[in-house]
Design a protein that fits this description.
125 residues, 36% helix, five-stranded mixed beta sheet, Bacillithiol system protein YtxJ, 5 helices, single chain, alpha/beta, Glutaredoxin, Thioredoxin-like_sf, 24% strand, BrxC
Length: 125
């Protein structure tokens, strides 16, 4: 793989290797995540795999949360592969779609959301 492939392709992307992410790839996955929010706070990271800014924000966020002590379940949504799920999240939680975006959910309700450079581990604690 060339240097440019590593930078610009989705292959070998860091987030795919991080063990703390749970993927949302279906409405069933989304429903399980929401159900889980009644037991623990959850966060959904909506990521555009073709956007350099989104990749940068994701990497920075992952560095921040690696040592987080707070018990939070982290979910990852690939916007390009699952746009309809992203739209459903925006509609169901009354949060305008942005990318990248982090939505924190507790007891089935969005309690915080941020996009771009405003995404931070501080949102989840």
């Amino acid at each position: 793989m060339s240097f440019f492939d590593k930078i610009f392709s989705g292959k070998g992307e860091e987030s795919e290797k991080k063990s703390f992410w749970k993927k949302i790839e279906s409405e069933e996955d989304l429903q399980k995540a929401i159900e889980s929010s009644f037991h623990n706070r959850i966060a959904i990271f909506k990521h555009s795999t073709s956007c350099f800014i989104s990749k940068t924000v994701l990497k920075n966020f992952e560095k921040e949360i690696e040592n987080l002590d707070q018990k939070v379940e982290l979910y990852y949504l690939d916007l390009l592969a699952h746009r309809s799920l992203s739209n459903k999240i925006a509609e169901d939680f009354g949060v305008r779609h942005e990318s990248p975006q982090l939505i924190v959910i507790e007891n089935g309700k969005a309690i915080s959301n941020a996009s771009h450079q405003h995404i931070s581990a501080d949102q989840i604690v």
